[in-house]
Specification:
- Two copies of one chain form a homodimer.
- Chain A is α/β, with parallel strands linked by helices and about 375 residues long.
- The first copy, chain A, folds into two domains: about 170 residues, 3-Layer(aba) Sandwich (Rossmann fold), CATH 3.40.50; about 200 residues, Dehydroquinate synthase-like, alpha domain.
- The first copy, chain A, contains 13 helices and nine strands.
- In chain A, the strands form two sheets. A six-stranded parallel sheet of chain A has the order 2-9-6-5-3-4, sandwiched between helices. In chain A, strands 7-8 form a two-stranded antiparallel ribbon.
- The radius of gyration of chain A is 20 Å and the shape is globular.
- The interface between A and B is large, with 40 and 40 residues.
Chain lengths: ~375, ~375
C-alpha cells in the first residue's frame, strides 16, 4: 500500500426529509446565496423545501448555472455575491451546480487578477466562503469532495481544481429529490460514478485488498441497482443506493493508498468542451479504448475486475481482457449510453483538434504510470471513432 | 436504507515515516502533553520519532495509561494538564491511550462537578482541548472516531461516551510501529476489528447493499491478512492492510443507514471490568452465544454472512446458521483467542454478578431491535460458560 493522507470533513445528511435540517447547519444571520440550474428544482418541490428551511435568513438567488458550468456565468455570481456581502452559499442541484459553487466561493476570496488563474496557473486556493449543498442528481460525487471542473466558453477549455477549502460544510442527499430526473440523467449518473471507481481501481496492484474490495462493492452495487433505477426511478431504496454509491465513488475512501489513472477524464473533458456531449457519455466513449490500449499495463487489475465483477474466468488472457472490456461496454449500452464517437457524430477532425490543443497546452504523462503521451491519446481516440 | 448523518473530520496520515508530519499538524507554540502507556514506545523507536517531530514545542509527558484506561489515572493527567496550561494533547499508543486521551481532553474543559458524570449521567461534552494520535496498535478504531471507553477501578465500571468534539484532529498510522507488538495484541486487534464489523453488519436487512459489501470487504481482508500477521508480524503490507481495516471497521463508513447491535460489546465490557480479561477476548466469548441466541432474529444477515464470507451454502437453515457461528469461532481460535468463559476461569458466579449489576443500573433494550433484556443477557452468558 502506498502512503496516503485522507481528510474529508463534509457532513452528510442523508435521507428523506433531510432538507429541513439545513436550518441547523447554516450560521444564524448569514446572508445566503442559493445557486441552482435551469429551474427543475422549482417543479419538484426542492426549491420550496429549501426556502422554507432558510426562513429567517436573507436569501439571494442565482440561477441558470449550466451543465458543465461556465466560468463566464459563475463570475457573474461572484460579482453579485460580493456586492450583496454574501457569507454562505447553498448549492441546490447536481454536480454542475456544486462544482460551479466551489468556483464561486473560491473566486469570491481570490486576491489575484483573474480567478481563472486557479485553473490555468494552478494558483492555490487559500480560503473560500463557506458553502453547503442540496444534491438532486447522483453522479459526480462533488457533494463530498473538494474538486471542481469549470468550462470557459470563450476558449472552449474545461479544467479542474481542488483545495482543502472547497469541501462543502454539509451536503443533503435526499433520494426523493431524484424522482423526477430525466432517465438520461439517471443513466449518465450511473456511468459517471462507475467510471470514477474504475479510474481509481483499474491501475496496477499495490497490495491493497481492502481498497480493491471497496471499489468492487460500489461497482457491484451500481450494476445491481442501475437497471432497477432505469425501470423504476421512483423506487426510494434503489435511488438511495445509487445516490450513496455515487458519493462513495469519489469521496476519497477508495482512493487511499492506491495509484489512480484519470486519463479517461482528462481526455473526455475535451469532447464536452468541443461538442457539448454529456460528461458521462464522453467517459463511456474514451474508457473502453483506453482500457484496450493499456490492456498490457493494466493486465492484473483488468483480469481481477473481469473475474470478480463480470465473472470472466475462461479463455486466454487476451480473450478475458477483451471480454471484460466488452462486459463494461454492454453495461453502458444497456443504460442507453453509446460508446463510440460516431454515435455522437464526432469524427477524425475532432481527434486532430484535441491533439493540437494538447500540444499547445503541453499535455504529457497522463495515467497512473504517467506514460500516456499525446501520441497515445491520438491512438486511444482513433480507437473510439 | 435508514436516514443517517455522517461526519468524520479526522485527518489520517498513513504510512511509513509519517510521524514526522505531525510537526505540520500541531499549532506552532502549542504546549503539548504527550500521553502514552507502559513505555513500549521507548523500545521501538516511536517515542524518539515523536519527540523529534515535536522539537520547538514545550512538551509534558504523561505515561502509564493502562489497558482499559482508568478514570483515576486519567484524572491525574487532567490535573497536570490544567496546571501546565496544556493546549494540545498527543496520544501515542493503542486504543486505550487514545480513548483515555479523549476523556482527558473532554474532562479538561468540563465545567460540572465530576467528569465521570459524562459517562454515568450522560452530561454532553460541549468542548474539548484539541488532540491528535500516533497509533501503534491496530484494533479499536478509536484513532478515527469520537468514541471512548473508560474504566473506573473503584466501582469496577467500564463505560463509554462520545462527542463531536472528541475526534482526533489527526491520526498517524504507520504500520512499522506495529512490528514489535506481542502476538497476543496483534490477534486481539484482529478479533476486535472483526467484531466491530459484525456489530454493524449482523442485524437485519434494510436494503443497503453497498454498506453490506463494504462490511464484508473488511471481514474478508481481516480473514486473509490475519493469519499472515500472526506468522509474519513484520511484513509491512500485511500490517498496513490490518491497520487500515481496523480503522475502517469503526470510522462510521460501514454504519451509515443501517441498524447496529453493540450488545456484545455492552455485555463483554463487564467481563473486562470484573476480571481484567482482554477486551477482544471478552468479545470472542460473548459474540458466538449472542449470535446463536439471536439466530432467528438475525437469520437473514447471518445466512448472508455465512455464504459470502465463509462459503456456507449447504444444509438446512439451522445447520447453516450453526456452521456460520462455528466458522467464526474457528477463526478466533485459529488466532489463539479462546471463546469460552471457562477458558478464562470465569464461572456462573460472574454471570450472577453481571445480572445484578445490570439490574442495579437498570439496563434494558440492548441490541438492534432493543429486545435484549437482562434475562436474555443471563442466558447468553450461560451459553458461554
Amino acid at each position: 500500500m502506498n502512503n496516503f493522507n485522507f481528510y474529508n470533513p463534509v457532513k452528510i445528511l442523508f435521507g428523506k426529509g433531510q432538507i429541513s435540517a439545513i436550518a441547523d447547519e447554516i450560521p444564524a444571520g448569514a446572508r445566503v446565496m442559493v445557486t441552482y440550474g435551469g429551474g427543475s428544482i422549482k417543479k419538484n418541490g426542492v426549491y420550496e423545501q429549501v426556502m422554507t428551511a432558510l426562513k429567517g435568513h436573507t436569501v439571494i438567488e442565482f440561477s441558470n448555472i449550466e451543465p458543465n458550468p461556465h466560468y463566464e456565468t459563475l463570475m457573474q455570481a461572484v460579482e453579485i455575491a460580493k456586492r450583496q456581502q454574501i457569507d454562505f452559499v447553498l448549492a441546490v442541484g447536481g454536480g454542475s451546480v456544486v462544482d460551479g459553487t466551489k468556483f464561486i466561493v473560491a473566486a469570491m476570496e481570490f486576491e489575484g487578477e483573474d480567478p481563472w488563474d486557479i485553473m490555468t496557473k494552478r494558483v492555490p486556493v487559500e480560503r473560500a466562503v463557506p458553502f453547503g449543498a442540496v444534491l438532486t442528481l447522483p453522479a459526480t460525487g462533488s457533494e463530498m469532495n473538494s474538486g471542481s471542473v469549470v468550462t470557459r466558453v470563450s476558449t472552449k477549455e474545461k479544467l479542474a481544481f481542488s483545495s482543502p477549502f472547497t469541501f462543502p460544510k454539509f451536503s443533503v442527499l435526499d433520494p426523493e429529490t431524484t424522482f423526477t430526473l430525466p432517465l438520461r440523467q439517471v443513466s449518465n449518473g450511473i456511468v459517471d460514478a462507475f467510471t470514477h471507481v474504475l479510474e481509481q481501481y483499474l491501475t496496477y496492484p499495490v497490495n491493497a485488498p481492502l481498497q480493491d474490495r471497496m471499489a468492487e462493492s460500489i461497482l457491484l452495487t451500481l450494476i445491481e441497482e442501475g437497471p432497477k433505477a432505469i425501470h423504476n426511478p421512483q423506487d426510494y431504496d434503489t435511488m438511495a443506493n445509487i445516490m450513496w454509491s455515487a458519493t462513495m465513488a469519489l469521496n476519497g475512501v477508495i482512493r487511499v493508498g492506491v495509484p489512480t489513472d484519470w486519463a479517461t477524464h482528462y481526455i473526455a473533458h475535451e469532447l464536452t468542451a468541443l461538442h457539448g456531449i454529456d460528461h458521462a457519455r464522453t467517459l463511456a466513449v474514451v474508457l473502453p479504448s483506453l482500457l484496450r490500449y493499456k490492456g498490457k499495463e493494466k493486465r492484473e487489475k483488468l483480469l481481477q475486475y473481469g473475474e470478480r465483477i463480470w465473472g470472466v474466468d475462461a479463455g486466454t488472457e487476451d480473450e478475458r481482457l477483451e471480454a471484460t472490456v466488452m462486459a463494461t461496454v454492454s453495461f453502458f449500452e444497456s443504460l442507453d449510453i453509446r460508446t463510440k464517437l460516431s454515435d455522437y457524430e464526432v469524427g477524425e477532425d475532432t481527434v486532430k483538434t484535441i491533439v493540437k490543443r494538447f500540444q499547445e497546452r503541453g499535455v504529457k504523462n497522463l495515467g497512473e504510470r504517467a506514460d500516456i503521451q499525446i501520441d497515445d491519446v491520438q491512438q486511444i481516440l482513433m480507437m473510439s471513432l
